[in-house]
Amino acid sequence: MIVRVGSDLISEMLNLAVRLTSEATSRIQEFAVHIDIQRKPDDSVVTQTDHALQRRMVSEIQRAFPNHAIVAEETRSDAATLDPRTSQYVWVIDPLDGTRNYAVGFPCFATAIAVLEQGRPVVGVVREHNVHRTYAAVLGGGATVNGTPLVRRESLVSHDHLVGISSTKDAVTVRTLQALVPTKGLILRNLGSAAMHLALVADGGLSAAFGVKAKIWDLAAGALLLSETGGVLTDLEGRPMVPFDLAAEADRDLPFLCGCPAMHARILSLIRG
What we know:
Blueprint: H1 8-31, E1 37-39, E2 45-47, H2 48-64, E3 69-72, E4 89-97, H3 99-104, E5 110-117, E6 120-128, E7 133-138, E8 143-145, E9 148-149, E10 161-164, H4 171-180, E11 186-189, H5 194-203, E12 208-211, H6 216-228, E13 232-234, E14 256-259, H7 261-272
Parallel strand pairs: 3-4, 10-11, 10-12
Antiparallel strand pairs: 1-2, 4-5, 5-6, 6-7, 7-8, 8-9, 12-14, 13-14
Helix pairs in contact: 1-2, 5-6
Protein backbone atom coordinates (compact mmCIF):
# COMPACT_ATOMS: atom_id res chain seq x y z
CA MET A 1 0.00 0.00 0.00
CA ILE A 2 1.34 3.45 -0.91
CA VAL A 3 1.71 5.73 2.11
CA ARG A 4 0.34 9.24 1.84
CA VAL A 5 0.26 12.56 3.60
CA GLY A 6 -0.74 12.46 7.23
CA SER A 7 1.12 9.32 8.23
CA ASP A 8 3.89 9.54 10.82
CA LEU A 9 6.27 7.76 8.47
CA ILE A 10 5.71 10.26 5.67
CA SER A 11 6.30 13.16 8.07
CA GLU A 12 9.50 11.61 9.40
CA MET A 13 10.86 10.97 5.90
CA LEU A 14 9.93 14.45 4.70
CA ASN A 15 11.49 16.12 7.74
CA LEU A 16 14.74 14.19 7.28
CA ALA A 17 14.91 14.99 3.54
CA VAL A 18 14.32 18.69 4.20
CA ARG A 19 16.92 18.73 6.98
CA LEU A 20 19.56 16.98 4.88
CA THR A 21 19.08 19.30 1.91
CA SER A 22 19.19 22.34 4.18
CA GLU A 23 22.36 21.15 5.92
CA ALA A 24 23.94 20.65 2.51
CA THR A 25 23.89 24.40 1.90
CA SER A 26 26.34 25.17 4.70
CA ARG A 27 28.58 22.21 3.84
CA ILE A 28 28.72 23.30 0.20
CA GLN A 29 29.86 26.75 1.31
CA GLU A 30 32.58 25.23 3.48
CA PHE A 31 33.96 23.05 0.68
CA ALA A 32 33.80 25.91 -1.84
CA VAL A 33 36.98 27.39 -0.32
CA HIS A 34 38.94 24.74 -2.22
CA ILE A 35 37.17 22.56 -4.79
CA ASP A 36 38.89 19.35 -5.86
CA ILE A 37 37.62 18.66 -9.39
CA GLN A 38 37.80 15.16 -10.86
CA ARG A 39 36.41 13.40 -13.91
CA LYS A 40 34.21 10.31 -13.86
CA PRO A 41 34.49 7.58 -16.53
CA ASP A 42 31.75 9.27 -18.57
CA ASP A 43 33.79 12.53 -18.47
CA SER A 44 31.29 14.27 -16.20
CA VAL A 45 32.60 16.37 -13.31
CA VAL A 46 32.63 15.29 -9.67
CA THR A 47 34.09 17.05 -6.62
CA GLN A 48 34.92 16.15 -3.05
CA THR A 49 31.76 18.03 -2.12
CA ASP A 50 29.55 15.53 -3.97
CA HIS A 51 31.16 12.64 -2.11
CA ALA A 52 31.09 14.30 1.30
CA LEU A 53 27.44 15.31 0.99
CA GLN A 54 26.43 11.84 -0.09
CA ARG A 55 28.32 10.10 2.71
CA ARG A 56 26.56 12.30 5.24
CA MET A 57 23.13 11.72 3.70
CA VAL A 58 23.55 7.96 3.39
CA SER A 59 24.74 7.71 6.99
CA GLU A 60 21.81 9.72 8.33
CA ILE A 61 19.23 7.80 6.28
CA GLN A 62 20.65 4.44 7.31
CA ARG A 63 20.62 5.49 10.94
CA ALA A 64 17.01 6.71 10.82
CA PHE A 65 15.61 4.06 8.46
CA PRO A 66 17.84 0.96 8.48
CA ASN A 67 15.26 -1.05 6.53
CA HIS A 68 15.17 1.37 3.61
CA ALA A 69 17.29 1.00 0.48
CA ILE A 70 19.27 3.85 -1.07
CA VAL A 71 20.10 4.69 -4.67
CA ALA A 72 22.59 7.54 -4.93
CA GLU A 73 24.63 9.10 -7.70
CA GLU A 74 28.17 9.16 -6.31
CA THR A 75 30.15 6.23 -4.90
CA ARG A 76 27.05 4.11 -5.02
CA SER A 77 28.75 1.30 -3.13
CA ASP A 78 28.28 3.46 -0.02
CA ALA A 79 24.55 2.94 -0.38
CA ALA A 80 24.48 -0.72 -1.41
CA THR A 81 23.24 -2.15 1.88
CA LEU A 82 19.78 -3.22 0.73
CA ASP A 83 18.46 -4.21 -2.68
CA PRO A 84 16.21 -1.44 -4.10
CA ARG A 85 14.39 -4.05 -6.19
CA THR A 86 13.01 -5.75 -3.10
CA SER A 87 12.85 -2.95 -0.52
CA GLN A 88 9.52 -1.28 0.20
CA TYR A 89 11.08 2.17 0.49
CA VAL A 90 13.97 3.44 -1.61
CA TRP A 91 15.70 6.77 -1.09
CA VAL A 92 17.00 8.33 -4.30
CA ILE A 93 19.70 10.95 -3.80
CA ASP A 94 21.47 13.47 -5.98
CA PRO A 95 23.79 15.19 -3.50
CA LEU A 96 24.78 17.97 -5.88
CA ASP A 97 22.94 18.39 -9.16
CA GLY A 98 24.77 20.93 -11.27
CA THR A 99 28.28 19.96 -10.18
CA ARG A 100 29.84 21.52 -13.26
CA ASN A 101 28.16 24.83 -12.34
CA TYR A 102 29.42 24.53 -8.76
CA ALA A 103 32.96 23.72 -9.88
CA VAL A 104 33.30 26.86 -12.00
CA GLY A 105 31.33 29.23 -9.79
CA PHE A 106 28.12 29.43 -11.80
CA PRO A 107 25.48 30.00 -9.10
CA CYS A 108 22.90 27.33 -9.83
CA PHE A 109 23.11 23.91 -8.21
CA ALA A 110 20.78 21.86 -6.06
CA THR A 111 20.33 18.80 -3.90
CA ALA A 112 17.49 16.42 -4.67
CA ILE A 113 16.13 13.68 -2.41
CA ALA A 114 13.12 11.45 -3.05
CA VAL A 115 11.61 8.43 -1.37
CA LEU A 116 9.99 5.84 -3.63
CA GLU A 117 7.47 3.17 -2.72
CA GLN A 118 6.90 0.55 -5.41
CA GLY A 119 8.72 2.89 -7.78
CA ARG A 120 6.40 5.83 -7.04
CA PRO A 121 7.69 8.96 -5.29
CA VAL A 122 5.94 9.58 -1.98
CA VAL A 123 8.36 12.26 -0.75
CA GLY A 124 10.31 14.69 -2.91
CA VAL A 125 12.59 17.58 -1.97
CA VAL A 126 14.72 19.82 -4.21
CA ARG A 127 16.80 22.61 -2.65
CA GLU A 128 18.62 25.26 -4.69
CA HIS A 129 21.56 26.42 -2.61
CA ASN A 130 22.13 29.92 -4.00
CA VAL A 131 18.64 31.36 -3.68
CA HIS A 132 17.89 29.17 -0.65
CA ARG A 133 14.69 27.84 -2.14
CA THR A 134 13.38 24.47 -0.96
CA TYR A 135 10.69 22.70 -2.97
CA ALA A 136 8.98 19.84 -1.13
CA ALA A 137 6.07 17.50 -1.80
CA VAL A 138 4.37 14.45 -0.38
CA LEU A 139 2.05 12.19 -2.31
CA GLY A 140 -1.51 13.51 -2.12
CA GLY A 141 -0.47 16.48 0.00
CA GLY A 142 0.46 19.06 -2.58
CA ALA A 143 3.79 20.87 -2.84
CA THR A 144 5.43 23.78 -1.06
CA VAL A 145 8.28 26.21 -1.65
CA ASN A 146 9.98 27.32 1.58
CA GLY A 147 6.93 26.07 3.44
CA THR A 148 4.39 28.05 1.40
CA PRO A 149 1.86 26.09 -0.69
CA LEU A 150 3.04 25.92 -4.28
CA VAL A 151 0.39 26.85 -6.82
CA ARG A 152 1.71 26.63 -10.34
CA ARG A 153 1.64 29.88 -12.31
CA GLU A 154 0.40 28.95 -15.78
CA SER A 155 0.29 31.40 -18.67
CA LEU A 156 -1.60 31.10 -21.92
CA VAL A 157 0.01 28.86 -24.53
CA SER A 158 -0.03 31.73 -27.05
CA HIS A 159 2.43 33.76 -24.93
CA ASP A 160 6.19 33.37 -24.78
CA HIS A 161 7.30 30.36 -22.75
CA LEU A 162 10.63 29.42 -21.21
CA VAL A 163 11.67 25.84 -21.96
CA GLY A 164 14.46 24.08 -20.09
CA ILE A 165 16.80 22.26 -22.46
CA SER A 166 19.43 19.54 -22.18
CA SER A 167 23.17 20.16 -21.84
CA THR A 168 24.05 17.17 -24.01
CA LYS A 169 24.87 17.29 -27.73
CA ASP A 170 23.65 13.84 -28.74
CA ALA A 171 21.61 13.31 -31.89
CA VAL A 172 18.26 13.29 -30.07
CA THR A 173 19.00 16.57 -28.31
CA VAL A 174 20.19 18.22 -31.52
CA ARG A 175 17.09 17.04 -33.39
CA THR A 176 14.81 18.27 -30.61
CA LEU A 177 16.50 21.68 -30.54
CA GLN A 178 16.15 21.95 -34.30
CA ALA A 179 12.41 21.59 -33.78
CA LEU A 180 12.19 24.04 -30.87
CA VAL A 181 14.55 26.85 -31.91
CA PRO A 182 12.49 28.15 -34.86
CA THR A 183 9.16 27.80 -33.03
CA LYS A 184 7.71 31.20 -32.18
CA GLY A 185 6.98 31.76 -28.51
CA LEU A 186 9.48 29.21 -27.16
CA ILE A 187 12.46 30.76 -25.36
CA LEU A 188 15.16 28.21 -24.48
CA ARG A 189 16.98 28.08 -21.14
CA ASN A 190 19.59 25.71 -19.70
CA LEU A 191 20.36 25.98 -15.98
CA GLY A 192 22.62 22.93 -15.92
CA SER A 193 20.41 21.13 -13.35
CA ALA A 194 17.64 18.80 -14.42
CA ALA A 195 16.30 18.71 -10.85
CA MET A 196 15.88 22.48 -10.93
CA HIS A 197 14.28 22.36 -14.36
CA LEU A 198 11.59 20.03 -13.01
CA ALA A 199 11.10 22.13 -9.88
CA LEU A 200 10.71 25.28 -11.95
CA VAL A 201 8.21 23.61 -14.26
CA ALA A 202 6.22 22.69 -11.14
CA ASP A 203 6.51 26.29 -9.96
CA GLY A 204 5.72 27.84 -13.35
CA GLY A 205 9.07 29.55 -13.94
CA LEU A 206 9.53 27.18 -16.86
CA SER A 207 6.64 26.05 -19.02
CA ALA A 208 8.38 22.83 -20.02
CA ALA A 209 11.73 21.04 -19.96
CA PHE A 210 13.35 18.10 -21.67
CA GLY A 211 16.52 16.07 -21.28
CA VAL A 212 18.11 12.99 -22.77
CA LYS A 213 20.89 11.91 -20.39
CA ALA A 214 19.00 12.37 -17.10
CA LYS A 215 19.19 9.70 -14.39
CA ILE A 216 16.65 8.57 -11.83
CA TRP A 217 18.24 10.79 -9.13
CA ASP A 218 17.77 13.82 -11.39
CA LEU A 219 14.06 13.15 -11.84
CA ALA A 220 12.57 11.31 -8.86
CA ALA A 221 12.01 14.28 -6.53
CA GLY A 222 10.86 16.59 -9.32
CA ALA A 223 8.44 13.97 -10.59
CA LEU A 224 6.44 14.31 -7.38
CA LEU A 225 6.59 18.11 -7.46
CA LEU A 226 5.15 17.96 -10.97
CA SER A 227 2.35 15.51 -10.21
CA GLU A 228 1.32 17.46 -7.10
CA THR A 229 1.03 20.69 -9.12
CA GLY A 230 -0.74 19.26 -12.17
CA GLY A 231 2.31 18.84 -14.39
CA VAL A 232 3.06 16.00 -16.77
CA LEU A 233 6.26 13.90 -16.95
CA THR A 234 6.81 11.38 -19.75
CA ASP A 235 9.56 9.99 -21.91
CA LEU A 236 10.10 11.51 -25.34
CA GLU A 237 7.49 9.17 -26.79
CA GLY A 238 4.82 10.41 -24.40
CA ARG A 239 4.86 7.34 -22.14
CA PRO A 240 4.55 7.89 -18.35
CA MET A 241 7.83 7.58 -16.43
CA VAL A 242 6.27 6.82 -13.05
CA PRO A 243 6.51 4.28 -11.54
CA PHE A 244 10.27 4.18 -12.01
CA ASP A 245 11.79 0.80 -12.83
CA LEU A 246 14.05 -0.05 -9.91
CA ALA A 247 15.02 -3.36 -11.51
CA ALA A 248 16.88 -1.48 -14.24
CA GLU A 249 20.43 -0.19 -13.92
CA ALA A 250 20.35 2.90 -11.72
CA ASP A 251 22.60 4.93 -13.97
CA ARG A 252 20.79 4.31 -17.24
CA ASP A 253 19.71 7.32 -19.26
CA LEU A 254 16.10 8.45 -18.85
CA PRO A 255 15.06 10.83 -21.67
CA PHE A 256 12.20 12.99 -20.40
CA LEU A 257 9.75 15.72 -21.29
CA CYS A 258 7.77 17.60 -18.67
CA GLY A 259 5.46 20.57 -18.63
CA CYS A 260 2.03 21.87 -17.94
CA PRO A 261 -0.43 19.69 -19.89
CA ALA A 262 -0.92 22.09 -22.79
CA MET A 263 2.78 22.82 -23.29
CA HIS A 264 3.75 19.20 -22.85
CA ALA A 265 1.36 18.22 -25.64
CA ARG A 266 2.58 21.05 -27.84
CA ILE A 267 6.27 20.23 -27.48
CA LEU A 268 5.67 16.50 -27.79
CA SER A 269 4.04 17.13 -31.16
CA LEU A 270 7.08 19.19 -32.24
CA ILE A 271 9.45 16.43 -31.18
CA ARG A 272 7.45 13.83 -33.05
CA GLY A 273 7.56 16.02 -36.14
